[in-house]
Amino acid sequence: MEHEIISEILTHITNNNINKITFSNIRNKELELDKVIGKLVSIKNNINLQLEYRYRRIIKHTNIVTSDFSNIETTIQELFELAKDINIVTINENINIKISKKFKISVNRKTTVSKAISFDHNKKKEYFLDEKKKYPFLIELGIQNNDGKIIKSKYNKFKQINKYLEFIKQATTQLDSSKQITILDFGSGKSYLTFSAYYYLTKVLNLNVKIIGIDLKKEVIEHCNDIADKLNFTNLSFIYGDVIDYENKDEIDMVISLHACNTATDIAILKALGWKAKVFFAVPCCQKEVNGQLKADFMPFMLKHGIIKEKFSTLLTDSVRSDVLEAFGYKSDIVEFISAENTPKNQLIRAYKTTNDINKNILSNLEQFLSSLNVKMFLLDEVKKLI
Ligand SMILES: C[S@@+](CC[C@H](N)C(=O)[O-])C[C@H]1O[C@@H](n2cnc3c(N)ncnc32)[C@H](O)[C@@H]1O
């Protein structure tokens, strides 16, 4: 039976007769893989099987040209062994396959109304901001001109925002969308990210979202509030002030920041910890605090070079930040946000709340390590007040 099913799937693929194939109910829980969704897409005139691996925290894509039969066969075989449920939507059939623990297979078929296969590879781009589309909010913010063309000097920012939206989209799977989701953007500045996140979450994903941007620049905040009013972005608002003084008694689901200067990222972390926010994302900016204290006599062969010292401080600071989040029950990692050509400030600290337990060992280890360097960090001092 197993061979028949695999051979049927392969036949559907090679005959271009798959609208969608989903492998779910994954046997190996350690993989943290929810499902794998396959579609046929046309790339440079070749039909490919595009596989979207939806892990708990990230989504990965792979394309296999369907003429590479042995590769397709191996992949389908692997996926078959991994999934307990397989759903295949062909042009005129919906096939549900259930595979038991002991690999007993049952198949349920339903004939459906014929639906042509779409090989449109570019469809995914619609999910984020499309540089060929005119967005009134991007025009208001000065990222696009009145014809909807991206202004050259803003192109890197546009790419950063698009990339950030990709991470935000992944985060939405961890949030309860049956109620209003509240997001805070710390050091929102000109608020390109804040507006884009609001637009994307409310107008593209149709989620009930409230976003608040906070920044020290009074005029910029007023300007952003005017734009939000003008565009009727009713649940988007901006508050003038220092993030350290910002209080909010409501439930905060997610805290984000993009290039918030120096310790503003630490304050964002402290606030997120206090609110037990479910998601925390930060792409920090300048990590001056550690750089100012590091003495070159610790690893002189490295730290005598200013550029190495700066990079070392950045890596150290962000690693401590990520570990502090871990100590407070977050699953945290640091990933590349965008290419270094776009911006050298390209580390994203990404954290998802998993427990309310606090691991004091992590904090004391960090403290010990920092004191061996004769370095003090505002974040570590402040975080003790939350215990
Ligand atoms: C480099 S800009 C980034 C702005 C925006 N997030 C972006 O990516 O375009 C950093 C912003 O953080 C704000 N900022 C820095 N420290 C702050 C603080 N303590 N409270 C509020 N805003 C702060 C600055 O005013 C500035 O607008």
Short overview:
This protein has 387 residues and is an alpha/beta fold. It has helices at residues 2-14, 69-82, 136-140, 155-172, 192-204, 218-230, 264-275, 288-293, 300-303, 306-327, 360-372, 378-383, and strands at 20-26, 33-43, 46-55, 59-65, 83-89, 93-99, 105-111, 181-186, 209-215, 236-240, 254-258, 279-283, 330-336, 347-353. The protein starts with a helix and ends with a helix.
Small ligands present: S-adenosylmethionine
* Rg calculated over all Cα atoms: 24 Å
Structural class by sheet pairing and helices? alpha/beta
Topology, number of strands? 14
Give the low-pLDDT segments: 123-127
The number of helical segments is 12
Distance between the termini: 58 Å
How much helical structure, as a percent, in the residues?
A: 25-40%
Task: Please outline the major beta sheet.
Answer: 7 strands, antiparallel
The top level CATH class name of the largest domain: Alpha Beta
Please report which band the strand proportion falls in: under 5%, 5-15%, 15-25%, 25-35%, 35-45% or over 45%: 25-35%
CATH superfamily of the largest domain: Vaccinia Virus protein VP39
CATH topology of the largest domain: Rossmann fold
